[in-house]
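My current task is to audit a protein record that another person submitted. My question to you is simply how this chain folds and whether the tokens agree. This is what I was given:
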Amino acid sequence: MEKFKQLQKIKELYAKGENIIQYLKSIGNGETNTIEDMLISYDFQSGSYIQGFSKNKEYKEKYCRALAKLIDEINNIQSIIEVGVGEATTLNTLINNLKNRPSDILGFDISWSRLKFGKELLKDFNIHKVNLFTANLFEIPLLDNSIDIVYTSHSIEPNGGKEEEALKELYRITKKYLILLEPSFEFANDEAKVRMKKHGYVTELYSTAKKLDYKIVEHRLFDYSSNPLNPTGLIIIEKKATSSNNPNLVCPISHTELLKYNDSLLYSKESFLAYPVIDEIPCLLKENSILATHLLTDYNEYKTAHNIVYK
């Protein structure tokens, strides 16, 4: 996290309306958007998506109504997750448009600050029992085949060049369907294609899914797109999992069970790693892990077992 040393400078640039991602790329390798770049950029933007949502709620309703229609056509959906949920403007509107609301609703984002806003937005619309947590798209703290519907909404977007890694990880946790609403290079015009490459957006999602031999049941332009220079494409991938797991949070490093230690900590007894919970939001980036091999050790029992007596 070397670029965290630049946070005060970045705050000044953001206040001036400058492009944070471009600045971060300029002081790094300058070729691709790194996880650190995206974390910093999105965290500083926190709150702006709710502002946009409040000003253009009609468009979001149409967008999510179309997505809800696709999901409602799938039978027996018990769990759903939005990858890159941000401030939950899409998740919130989607839930309110679903005829059949799943019992387990999850969402994660790399930015804790965005989730802070998302948690409050969901409360504004009287939506509760949504499991929000921070995570890395490439190291999701869930078991294989644990979520019926995994969907994205322009969240893989800035990961150009990492299409295969992203698809493999999303497919891993998917139990039934993976629904991707992402920039469509195939359906973009020449100007849009140039722009997508300039910003480091994904350009090979469809071709990569084909290369991985995933079962693509639908691929087209989505019904709604807010920017013609960043057209939203729809890719629906079906997966028939041979095994099934519950949608419980696990350690992102070891994929072992996380237990609640107290209101501010989750702990894996198998990996000896603890993760903080801030304002009810679990922080599950691997960088958040704390090695605590003796978290569960009782000090008095330890002294007795080792015959420790102070003279």
Remarks:
- The mean pLDDT is 93.
- The radius of gyration is 21 Å.
- The chain has eleven helices and twelve strands.
